[in-house]
Amino acid sequence: xxxxxxxxxxxxxxxxxxxxxxxxxxxxxxxxxxxxxxxxxxxxxxxxxxxxxxxxxxxxxxxxxxxxxxxxxxxxxxxxxxxxxxxxxxxxxxxxxxxxxxxxxxxxxxxxxxxxxxxxxxxxxxxxxxxxxxxxxxxxxxxxxxxxxxxxxxxxxxxxxxxxxxxxxxxxxxxxxxxxxxxxxxxxxxxxxxxxxxxxxxxxxxxxxxxxxxxxxxxxxx
Length: 222
Known about the structure:
The protein has helices spanning 21-28, 45-57, 71-83, 96-104, 127-139, 156-166, 180-189, 198-201, 209-221; strands at residues 6-10, 12-13, 16-17, 35-39, 61-66, 88-91, 108-110, 115-117, 122-124, 145-147, 171-173, 193-196. It is of the alpha/beta class and 222 residues long. The protein has a single domain, classed as Aldolase class I (TIM Barrel).
């Protein structure tokens, strides 16, 4: 069934949380966005906990996206998400240990798929491999999948559409959603959600941070 993808606002630029994240959320808490997130770098943990608690108080669904590639680093990110009371852990490479940890703490887990390198991340691999990988993780109990669709070294539009149609769970297309054309492509692919962070800071949707959020939310519902 087709639906309008959900916007997850990321208070991040170049895959790192911005220093004035609290101020931006304060200014935009009345905007149309219900889902808000950060990365595991580079705010101090106490500031992250304070901001996530405020987001929850404002009725928001909270996300931590972890850009890490070793089991130890990924687990540290998962532990951070639990400490912050996050609803959803996105990112990390999939590890059974992290999947179990998220289940134990009642947190939804949406790991990456594919061959991921760098920060900001780049996605490699084949579409077929990524679909198989995703469905395997879902069978193991992951809630959904974090797909770095527009960071793909191949045809991102084809990947997003094939992936969403063949993966048996929620898909969030994360990263580099920075134009109305890409919003049109996402409406066509119809993932569960998508993230925007850097594009808002770079004023890709023309307006204040809050105006851009509302513009994207309105556009995606057309």
